[in-house]
Structure formats: structure tokens, C-alpha cells
Amino acid sequence: MGYRILETEDIAGYLRERGHWGTDEPEVREVSDGNMNRVFLVTATDRTRGLAVKQALPWVRVAGPSWPMSPERADAEARAYEQVAKVAPDKIPAIHGYDSDNYALVMEDMSDLEVLRTILNEGGTYGPDTSRRIGEFVAQLSFATSDFGMPSAERKALIAASVSPELCKITEDVVLSEPYLEHEHNHWHPGLDDLAVAFRSDPRLRTEVAELRHLFMTGAQALLHGDLHTGSIMVGTREGAPVVRVFDPEFSFVGPIGFDLGLYWANTLVSAARADALGVEGDHGDQLRLSWDAFRAEFRRLWPTRVDTFFDDAFLDRFLDRVWTESLGFAGAEIVRRIIGFAHLTDLTTLPDPVPASRRALLLGRELIVRRAELTSPEDVEALLR
Amino acid sequence: MGYRILETEDIAGYLRERGHWGTDEPEVREVSDGNMNRVFLVTATDRTRGLAVKQALPWVRVAGPSWPMSPERADAEARAYEQVAKVAPDKIPAIHGYDSDNYALVMEDMSDLEVLRTILNEGGTYGPDTSRRIGEFVAQLSFATSDFGMPSAERKALIAASVSPELCKITEDVVLSEPYLEHEHNHWHPGLDDLAVAFRSDPRLRTEVAELRHLFMTGAQALLHGDLHTGSIMVGTREGAPVVRVFDPEFSFVGPIGFDLGLYWANTLVSAARADALGVEGDHGDQLRLSWDAFRAEFRRLWPTRVDTFFDDAFLDRFLDRVWTESLGFAGAEIVRRIIGFAHLTDLTTLPDPVPASRRALLLGRELIVRRAELTSPEDVEALLR
Questions:
Q1: Which domains does chain A have, with CATH numbers?
Q2: A-B Cβ pairs (cutoff 8 Å, strict)
Q3: pLDDT tens profile A370-386
């Protein structure tokens, strides 16, 4: 059976064919809102059951067929979910099935949860659990798929299976080079003209970003989520308990662990800049520390279970120090590209006057990139934030 | 057509089937002398033509079927030759064909050349060209298959195609862990007992080797030869001109460039220890410098042709510094494993008294590993040698 693009009216039949739904007629609505894919929510009329269906199209959804993109990104997503399900099933949506012919995932209905970015933009806070869970998520996924958690031969197979040329290229371009070059993708608020020019003509910054770019291209440390921003996280409460779900791992590949932490940190630091601009009291400035502490504690908790005991405790200390430094660099690059690159953050663009907060964030981003080796603790970063 | 193990009497027919030989009956003799594979030399009776046929068996040749080993290592070898042929065809044997059904390479007859290690062990020297060519070889292969010389998407395909779980595991074990552990593979001259014990109980050395091991496992910088010792190099003269051929790249995979340089350096440093022990005058101590200078010069010569111009000149300087440091570390690990690990070097074992030279080499190896970051030039290493 070849690939077919699923429309709203096909979904109920499709789910029946694959054994995910009974004879009753569900309500189906398309709720696609990412850039890339289609998503359908399927709900029993009595509201007792729900499912989501996510299908990758052979193009970028918001652009249409004029921007082709291999739907094989859904394979990467399914593979990432499969790996996470082994070690952190509580932190991703339940996956009921993956149909590789149609690049379609059938998964948990998360319509009762909210996207973390939306909550933050609406004046909400992170709450005590979110960043801890994210730190644990990165530790659990990366440890399990590193040379510490996975036997050497299995790791090599994972590296081969998870190469993702098209999606890595997007990151290599829009995050790790374009913002520092003249490029048609770039745009920015006129109030940032001077900084955009300065960033493009700063040789030290360019060389440091080249380092991060090379690390991204060659550092096959562990399977990453690959796009771990606050828009890839849903949070909420079920039966009185907090729920955190990381989703959309279609940029997943085997790369440097610091890239996942760094993306998350960048997004928390930008949300802190927004809260500060609005005079909102909150916990925005604490999230880098909370997620790093949770990452490190979880990685250390898993360390005694490593399959490769040649790696000793002193090596772990050094390794974690290096992940810290690399994460800061990637955080800086992510902040910069979200302000003077291709895709901007609503956290800043929806501010009454985005300029002051954007300037501060840009300068923070630059410091994180060029001074990452001097910043040795979350407190050092918090001092930069103030 | 399935896989068949070729015997001497099959070779002429096999070559005819594949269009490599005419109707005349050649002389065929088996000349296998590596650990892993069978090699046949095929010569026309009038001596005007010759070929070599190399076949990977589904086991380690010298051990027999009791040590199974996937013959797919020949795919890695063919792939490496194919890459090198594009950029340094003068430094490998001419490849006339690869038969992936039978894991057999038909290649240049090099029986007029000699293995570099043999020459050195018989009191010969490197001569002015060998190490320069080796440095250029590493630069040409690694540049072309790095993110500098190869477009991002093509690189990802190369990484996926070149994973080599079985052969990488051998290196990870016998080079980058066993010598520092109690392991049945290890053996050494009784005169080295104290050093073998000291190396196994040296926490700093262990942690530094763990760093190198992790770099070997995760540093997907470029396609490597993977086993670039003086036994993988043939040299000689044809029509008055020096000839250097690197062969046996079956350990090839995408890894850290310093691993190829380091292996070669270790072998040159051990040959220098041998020459010194025998009071042989020669050029043995110059080879690290000659190969490094040639590597660096060639890499810099290729730099302006890079496909990814985001990498700037300042990044190149840093990158080469890092390759230098990593190469020293791998050189140290290779020296150590060749003296107290599984497979020893005839350079030392055939000395009348191998102990003094072996002790000096072991201590040099340790210094290269633990002090690699302090050694900034070939002169620093030459000072350690004296």
C-alpha cells in the first residue's frame, strides 16, 4: 500500500483499518499548527476516548508542495519516541502505532494539555516540575543512547539509522550560520540594526559559532530530541498530578547532548527576558538551574548502570563539565537566531516594545557563545541575566 | 551468485569471469600474511602483467572459523579505497574491481614493493618521502570526507554507510581499554612487570584514555584509514621514482582524524626506540615532524577549496591544534597497547634485549597521553624522545 495523504474524512476509516478504533463514528478535526505536519484529533462522541493522528507530508505544511521535504522525518520521530519510551515513557505521549508507509503516528490525545510557550506568553509560570522533568528527560534519553548506556555495536546501528541529512541541514543553516552572514532568511526589528550588523562582523563570535557548528556536525554523543524548545513541550494536570510531555522529536539524530539542553535554556532565558520586560513576577529566571541540576543528578544516578565501565567517575565529571559548556554555547546560538535569524519567538515579538528585551537577549546570547568556557555555574548565568 | 571461498586453483577462472584476465594461464600463489584475509598474486608467465586478489573470509584467517568475523569489512575497505581514489590515487594501490558478493578486491600487484615495517626492522630508513606522503594522505582523505570537503548531506550518508561495529569494537577494546585493565589478552616481557602494574593502577592515565576512547567512539570528523601503522604501508621505487602505497583500510570508519596520525606516529616513535637501542643512525626520530608538517601544509592547501565557507581561518587554526593534541594522545595509546596489550610490535620484540627500549617507549606513551595538551610542537615530542 503506497503513501496517501490523509484528509479529515479518511481518518476514522484509517484508524479502523489499523485496529485503533471500533465501529462507532468519532469526531475528527484537523488541528495542525506546527510548520511541518498535519495533526488530527479523534474523539469518541461520548468523550470517553481520544487519539491523535500525525502525518508528515512530502513538503513543509505551511509552505505547500513548493517546499518539498522528505516525509521520512516521521521515521526519525517514531525512532526517537521508541527510544524514549524505553527510558522515560512518562515524559512523551503514548504512541499507539507508527505506520511507516504513510509516515503517520497514532498517539495520545493531549488536547487537555497546553503548550508551555503558550502558558508563558499568557503570563503563566513554569511551575516546580516542568524544568526538572525536562532535565531528567534529556539525561534519560541521552544516557540510554550514549556509549555509556548502549553497547557499542547497537550504538553504531543507531547512528547509522538516525542520520537525518535534511533536518540537520536546516539546523546547520538557520541556527548555526545564517544569523552571522548576510542571508535572505534573516530579518529583525529595525531597533536591532546595529546589533545585527555587529554580529555579522564579529570575528570572534563567528569562530565560536563555527566551533558549535562543527560540534553539531561531528559530535555523535547521543540521540537528541533535536528541537527541544518550549513549543515542543505540553504541560497540564491530570488527576491532580502535574503532567509534562515532550513531543515533536522529528529533528532527532545522534548529536551533542548540549544541543538539547541549550535549546531549552535559550527558550527559558528568552521567556525570562519577556517576563522582565513585562514586570511579571515569576520563576522564569530559575529554569536553567533547575533543568541543569535535574539533568546532572539524573545522569549521575544512571552512571552506575553504564554498560561500559571503562569510563570512570573522573571521566564523568569532565564529561558533564563539557556538556555544561557546550550547552551554554548552543543556548547562545539559539537565542541569537531567534531574534535576528529566520524564525522568531513570539515571546519577544508580542511584547509592546520588543526592542529593549531583544537587545538584552542578543547580548546575553553573544556572551553565552563567546564566554561559555568562563561561565562555570548556573549562578554565573543568572548574574549575566541581571 | 552467493559467496564462495576462493582457492588458488579458482583464481584464474574467477578473474576471467570478471573480465580481469585473458585466456592465457597465469601463475597464482597465495601470499596471505595479514591476520585477517587471503591474498593471491597472479602473474602472467612472461612477467609482463600482474594482479592481486584479496578476499575477506567470514572468520579471522589466522584463527580459523572458531573466530568468526563478518566479511563485510571488505565493503569498508572498498569504500575507503573509493574515497581515497578520488583525492589521493597515487597513494593507494590501483583498484581494478570490487566484488561485493564475494568480498573480493582485484587490485594492483605490489610485490615489487616492500612493507615499511620490514624495511625498518632490517635496518633501513624511511627516506625523504615516506612520512611526507603519509601526512598528505591523511590530509587528503580526511579533508575530502570532513564537513569541510564534503557537502553536509553526502557526509551523513557516508557516516551511515561507514559504521563498522565489529572492527571499531576491536580498536575500542585492544587499543583503548584492555591494556589498562586486567585482561587475558594482555601479555608483556617480565622485565616490564612493574610498568604494566603501574599503568593499570594509574587513575590519571585511565581517565585520559577514557577521553580518547570517548573521542574515538563519538568524534565523527572524517573517514579514516583506521589502522595506519608501518605494516599498512608499502614503499619502493619504480622507474627511479619513490612509490608509497597505503593499503588494508578495512578498519575504515568516520572517526577522529588524530587516530590515523596517532597510529602512524606511534609506529615511527617505536621504530626510533628500536634504532636507538641498536645504535642505528637514521631518520627515525624525524618522522612525526615530517608527517605532521606535511599533513598541516596539505590541509591548509586544501582549505580554500572547502565546500562550507562558514568555517573561517581562525577556526582552522584551532581545529589543527586540536587534531595535533588528539593525535598525540592516540599515539601514546597505540605505543602502550603494542607493548603491554594483545598484539606486540616486532620492532621491539626482535631486539636482543627488548626491555630498555620497551620501558622508554612505554613511558613516552604515557607522557603523550597524559601531557598531550602541554606538548605544542614536534620539537616538544622530540625532546621527550631524547
A1: 8-108 (3.30.200.20), 114-385 (3.90.1200.10)
A2: 110
A3: 999 999 999 999 999 87
